[in-house]
Amino acid sequence: MQDQIKRMLVINPGSTSTKIGVFDNDSSVFEKTLRHDTDEIKKFKTIFDQYEFRKNAILETLDAEGINISKLSAVVGRGGLLRPIPGGTYAVNKEMIEDLKVGYAGQHASNLGGILAYEIASGLNIPSFIVDPVVVDELAPIARVTGFPQIDKTSIFHALNQKAVARRVSKKLGKKYEDLNLIVTHMGGGVSVGAHEKGRVIDVNNALHGEGPFSPERAGTVPAGDLIDMCFSGEYYREEIMSMLVGEGGLVGYLGTNDAVKVEKMIEAGDEKAKLVYDAMGYQIAKEIGTASAVLKGKVDAIILTGGLAYGKAFVNDISSYVNWIADVIIEPGEDELQALAEGALRVLRGEEEAKNYSIDELNTTTVK
Ligand SMILES: Nc1ncnc2c1ncn2[C@@H]1O[C@H](COP(=O)(O)OP(=O)(O)OP(=O)(O)O)[C@@H](O)[C@H]1O
Ligand SMILES: CCCC(=O)O
């Protein structure tokens, strides 16, 4: 018997755009990036204040495209900086909305994903979901211990793309994600390297706030003592140092661009500094993959390289040359977050997975303090 078609609206808010898609099961039937004028966005004091503006933009676009939202089975949004939660598809509820409104773990445009999904779905009496938000935390207890009792390790990474790609590759290998050990390396504006043990990311660098390899616009781990000296030198405001680490670090800091394609052109034109820095980024990513292989005790079924940087052939070859003795290296360039969100919601709508409940009382708040 043929499956009944589930039509889903998918919403992925970024800092200056909202990407939307309409999916019939796992096939995209409409996708659009709604660009928001930065001056318009700047008028809003908080991320939550942008909610009405973005909702109207989405509904007006769907209307203009002749897409009848009364035919939707669900609305799914990118989840934001919530409390740490295990991976999966979550039904949006009031507790989640409250955390997204205040930005429990910080301000991030993706906080609006769940809110927009919930508000649009409520009006239609259909369910709303978020899938694998950046705060997915499946860390093994041993991975939380930093060596500095005042600070625990935090899991913030590209969970949505890492998990979607890991599932896709597992399928291609004819295995279940839950039966494999994978090292998934997301290489975009930020870089995260996850040790996936049988479907759980038991260790990963905090790719948002400065840990792990440097990336096109983030510094990654920097020498702590020297950083402290800088912070207390009296020369910088907190925000300035934060920007140097996140946004203006990595390739931006050394070479003035976050665009790896431009850096490759600089190298072709004989720029030796560009070559050294680009090579160092690959070297640091390879070292992090080595770390993840130790976490998995060498039992690694595959290493996956994904994200925009994985389009760079020389770059992925260079990383492979350091790590291909560990396991086969599989290249899955780019990312497709709208597709990943649709697939997450579809697994629930088809009954293949149960939607998880975001309940503050039940959340695991493991710390080593
Ligand atoms: N063909 C290509 N060759 C080499 N690098 C590329 C290519 N296409 C894109 N990139 C690089 O990929 C990086 C951006 O990757 P991506 O689009 O995945 O990041 P993002 O979505 O902005 O950030 P994040 O993935 O951290 O959320 C940029 O440095 C870009 O120059
Ligand atoms: C690391 C979480 C996603 C991002 O890059 O902002």
From TrEMBL:
Keywords: ATP-binding, Cytoplasm, Kinase, Nucleotide-binding, Transferase. GO terms for cellular component: cytoplasm. It comes from the Bacteria. One of its GO terms (biological process) is acetate metabolic process. It is found in: Cytoplasm. InterPro entries: Aliphatic_acid_kin_short-chain (IPR000890), Aliphatic_acid_kinase_CS (IPR023865), ATPase_NBD (IPR043129), Butyrate_kin (IPR011245). It catalyses: butanoate + ATP = butanoyl phosphate + ADP. Its EC number is 2.7.2.7. The keyword Nucleotide-binding applies. Belongs to the acetokinase family. This is Probable butyrate kinase. The lineage of its organism: Bacteria, Bacillati, Bacillota, Bacilli, Bacillales.
